[in-house]
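re: ur question from yesterday

yeah so i grabbed the chain u mentioned. its 82 aa long if i counted rite. heres the sequnce exactly as i have it in my notes:
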Amino acid sequence: MKIIFLVDFQGVETGGVFYTCGQVVDLSIDVALRLVNDKRAAPMEVPVYEQPDKQVVTDDSEIFGNVYIEPQPTAKIKRGRK
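ran it thru and got these structure tokens back, copy pasting raw so excuse formatting
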């Protein structure tokens, strides 16, 4: 998770690495959330791309139009001995 530091920070959470105020880093989710909850960092906003709405088809007339197709009788297959 990408975060931006609001203060200079060096601690056990980051493995002793020193980060300056305004520095953007990508840390594991648990470490990042701890720093955000402690108000030492803020999450970087990730742009969210909206997906187009999927069309839900409720009946076959939307797919095939208003065309009526007459059902055809199926052929009977004889099985067994003659």
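noticed a couple things. The first strand starts at residue 2 and ends at 5. also The mean pLDDT is 79.
anyway ttyl
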